[in-house]
Specification:
- Helix content is 55%, strand content 9%.
- With 510 residues, the chain is of the alpha+beta class.
- The chain has a single domain, classed as Cytochrome P450 (Cytochrome p450), CATH 1.10.630.
- The strands form four sheets. Strands 1-2-8-5-3 form a five-stranded mixed sheet. A three-stranded antiparallel sheet has the order 4-12-9. A two-stranded antiparallel sheet has the order 6-7.
- Belongs to the cytochrome P450 family.
- It comes from Podarcis muralis.
- Heme binds at residue 457.
- The chain crosses the membrane at residues 21-41.
Length: 510
């Protein structure tokens, strides 16, 4: 604010003479740079003072910790930092942006049982993810009915249809009485997009696969670009970022994603207009997410704007597609790596379904051991490994240390789930951690794959149901085997992704 006032005053004083104009323009630029340098220095000093009670790994004078966390070393570095700083530690992205990374349940409880704005680093994202204050509360209230169990029930059949379509493709890739190595993540990503399109938007098979593939790649690109911007100190400046090739690439990817979303909304509006009454449509199909968005009204009877609807659709399609795809992909990887648990899940599912050809809503709650395996895979590979917040008031932790208002915190879900102070043998796959008895003794903030507090994932039940159906049908048709020649390398980006894909060997059991 002060800088803007000074610039406006100086600009109003500039003389009309070309030579003097050039001279004073140089002076103005110099003053702007000097003021910016002072502002950055003050920001740096404020951060140092605020984090002085929180020891952490040494940081580079320019890059902070960014240079220490290369993509292929991220897991090793994060695990080492969690072990050395088991409660929290400052993590620097350059010299002027830092978060207090929280990886202990008690710290998570103190931080996330209270309110807090979404972090400014989420600005490139959209919809319910980034809204704050009354507008977020309004949208959350309007969207919550879309995740009631009565709405979710009909989705089981639609999810099963999409899973079977994927399994049919796999069946053509696997020779009889043999195995074939298949890259999981791309197939599963297409499947989860199909599920979102069918369940949330009643979109049927007339969507071309090429267009879907293009949209999935765009979602991957956006996640990668956001992660890259956060980790690049110079890109924290909006001006520099938008002038860079990465900034232009991000803008282009946003246009593609928005075009895809606008097409979905436009087709539904046309459908509603042609049918004239929603009741006529609902007699033919289930109530979906887009129906709720288009019909939602606040307490004053005002509907959501077109911009708000697009933002929520973008959020749901992105968050509901790539996060679930990540969860299912790593779940299958864990199953392949642990054949004894895979077989126990398969036996549970076979006993549960018996001669029943289709999986039903009531079956999902009876998949006890399979659910434990799903939760254990989410512990080891949480789809969203880090969630950031900005403090809207000072916070004091249980050990007496405080953090001022306006500071940024990051719930390091990956570190929390592998913290040796919280979990015994944290690197080991052990579904019994989530048995009824063991769960009673676990800290309520020790396992947070869907975040926590008032801003937890609104679609977590939908995601869990999707993972259960995918696991059940897949294990009935295929045995999942590891492919030692193609081991995946996890990348901890906005959504945890395999750097080189997830290759598993499939054996057809039909």
């Amino acid at each position: 604010m002060v800088m803007e006032i000074v610039i406006n005053l100086l600009w109003s004083w500039l003389p009309a003479s070309p030579s003097q104009f050039f001279y004073w323009t140089v002076v103005l630029i110099f003053i702007c740079v000097a003021l910016k340098a002072i502002q950055l220095f003050q920001t740096r000093q404020k951060l140092i003072k605020g984090f002085r009670s929180f020891p952490g790994p040494p940081s580079h004078w320019l890059y902070g910790h960014v240079h220490m966390v290369r993509e292929f070393l991220t897991l090793l570095v994060r695990s080492a930092w969690t072990e050395k700083y088991p409660h929290c530690y400052p993590r620097w992205y350059g010299n002027f942006l830092a978060f207090l990374c929280i990886n202990h349940p008690e710290y998570a409880k103190t931080m996330y049982s209270r309110g807090g704005k979404k972090c400014v680093s989420y600005v490139p994202l959209i919809g319910l993810i980034t809204l704050n204050g009354p507008k977020w509360q309004q949208h959350r209230k309007l969207l919550t009915p879309g995740f009631h169990y009565n709405i979710l029930k009909p989705y089981v059949t639609l999810v099963a249809e999409s899973v079977k379509e994927m399994l049919d493709i796999w069946g053509k890739l696997v020779p009889k009485n043999g195995t074939a190595s298949v890259e999981m993540s791309q197939h599963i990503s297409l499947m989860t997009l199909n599920i979102i399109m069918k369940c949330a938007f009643s979109y049927q098979k007339n969507a071309e696969t090429d267009r879907k593939t293009s949209y999935i790649q765009t979602v991957f690109d956006l996640n990668s670009l956001i992660d890259h911007r956060i980790k690049t100190p110079f890109y924290q400046s909006d001006l520099i970022y938008w002038l860079s090739s990465k900034g232009r690439q991000f803008y282009k990817a946003c246009k593609i994603a928005h075009h895809h979303t606008e097409k979905v909304i436009r087709e539904r509006k046309d459908s509603l207009k042609n049918e004239k009454e929603l009741e006529k449509i609902l007699k033919k199909r289930h109530l979906d997410f887009l129906d709720i968005l288009l019909c939602a009204k606040d307490e004053n009877g005002n509907p959501l704007s077109d911009e708000d609807i697009r933002a929520e659709v973008d959020t749901f399609m992105s968050a509901g597609q790539d996060t679930t795809a990540s969860g299912i992909s790593w779940l299958f990887y864990c199953m392949a790596q642990n054949p004894e648990h895979q077989q126990r899940c398969r036996e549970e599912i076979m006993e549960l379904l018996g001669q029943q050809e289709e999986i039903q809503w009531d079956d999902l709650g009876k998949m006890t051991y399979s659910t434990m395996c799903i939760k254990e895979s989410l512990r080891l590979y949480p789809p969203v490994p880090l969630i950031a917040r900005e403090l809207n008031s000072p916070v004091t932790f249980a050990d007496g240390r405080t953090l001022p208002k306006g500071f940024l915190t990051a719930l390091d879900i990956y570190g929390l789930h592998r913290n040796p102070e919280v979990w015994d043998k944290p690197e080991e796959f052990n579904p019994l951690r989530f048995s009824t008895e063991n769960s009673k003794h676990r800290h309520p903030y020790a396992f947070l794959p869907f975040a926590t507090g008032s801003r937890n994932c609104i679609g977590q039940q939908f995601a869990m149901n999707e993972m259960k159906v995918a696991l059940a049908l897949t294990l009935l048709h295929f045995e999942l085997l590891p492919d030692p020649a193609n081991l995946p390398i996890p990348m901890l980006q906005i959504v945890i992704q395999p750097m080189n894909g997830i290759y598993l060997k499939l054996k057809d059991l039909r």
